[in-house]
Design a protein that fits this description.
heterodimer; A: 107 residues; mainly alpha; 4 helices; B: 226 residues; two-stranded antiparallel sheet; 4 strands; 73% helix
Chain lengths: 107, 226
């Protein structure tokens, strides 16, 4: 009985997560950048220059397929945001699935 | 609160990488010993929840925006070790896939959010318990509220120290505003809005979700004794 409850709970959780994923574009309604999370252009506008170290390290990591919760080939921010949410969730589940196997072997 | 690359000096980044790696490693080792198949699924659920909650940005005072983390909630549901692992994974994915928070700054971001929030939540809750505060909801509210403010304060200190420590010819090398700016800019919105929303959500969701969180020690005992 407990096992069945558990499976049902997992199913419910997936439905909730998926529903939340489709609601995430609400998070795009504000255009304000968070304090201390500005882009190079925003810093240049505020200071008139970009500090040397920021210029040097800002783009040290190049992977930008899903930059800022957009999807590179999809030009609609809302759809990109929802897809990013779903991709993130899938990656999380896959990652922990792999982690489970790695640690099981070590036991 | 997700610090991008370039805002922190390499020295700062290296220090926090070392501290965070040790803490997450310790938490994972402890977690692994009592984990079974189900706990990994619960870890994924906690992680996915935290990830998605962080996507809901809302405007706050001072023309800025913020989001809650969901980390206090998963800490109450699954315990500090699981919470540290789940939220670290979220921050790693945010940095690697979505460039939300830097790669060099990842150790610092993990420390501020994935380590400081779970630990301070548990610590404050224990403290209140020992002070004989019997009302669980009040304890949850206060500990979630302060844990978020602690994370915001750590971020403000790390950013605000950069221009005091690292300059070249009078110009900042990395982050440009010092503590006089970063502390009010981080603390006012978190103190007044973000932490209140986080704490309220934690109180509201904890009791209804408690039944789903089957990672709890008692149930593990039951399944083991079978």
């Amino acid at each position: 009985m407990k096992e069945k409850n558990y499976k049902n709970n997992i199913k419910k959780i997936f439905i909730v997560l998926l529903a939340l994923a489709f609601l995430t574009p609400i998070g795009l309604l504000t255009q304000n950048p968070a304090f201390g999370e500005w882009s190079l252009e925003e810093i240049r506008k505020m200071l008139g220059f970009v500090p040397e170290g920021i210029k040097k390290y800002a783009d040290i990591y190049k992977f930008d397929l899903f930059d800022g919760y957009t999807v590179k080939f999809i030009h609609n921010d809302y759809i990109g945001y929802i897809l990013s949410a779903i991709i993130g969730i899938v990656v999380i589940f896959v990652l922990f699935y792999i982690l489970k196997f790695i640690t099981a072997e070590r036991k | 609160m997700h610090i991008p690359d370039g805002y922190l000096s390499p020295q700062t980044c290296a220090t926090f990488y070392a501290v965070s790696a040790a803490a997450v490693g310790y938490a994972f080792n402890k977690f692994r010993k009592q984990a079974d198949e189900k706990t990994y699924i619960q870890l994924s659920v906690a992680s996915a929840f935290t990830f998605i909650v962080m996507m809901f940005n809302f405007p706050v005072v001072g023309g800025s925006s913020a989001h809650i983390t969901g980390i206090p909630l998963i800490t109450f549901l699954y315990g500090p070790q699981a919470s540290i692992i789940a939220s670290s994974v979220v921050l790693i994915i945010q940095a690697l896939l979505f460039r939300d928070g830097g790669i060099l700054a990842l150790g610092t971001n993990v420390f501020n959010m994935a380590i400081a929030i779970p630990l301070s939540t548990v610590f404050i809750n224990k403290l209140l318990e020992s002070l004989n505060l019997k009302n669980e909801k009040v304890r949850i509210f206060i500990s979630s509220y302060f844990s978020i403010n602690i994370a915001a304060f750590l971020t403000a200190i790390e950013l605000g120290l950069q221009p005091l420590l690292f300059t070249k010819a009078g110009k900042p090398l990395y982050f440009m505003y010092d503590l006089k700016t970063t502390i009010p800019a981080m603390m006012i919105p978190h103190f007044l809005i973000v932490a209140v929303v986080e704490a309220a959500l934690t109180v509201l969701l904890y009791l209804p979700l408690k039944n789903y969180a089957t990672i709890k020690a008692e149930e593990k005992e039951v399944s083991k004794s079978k």
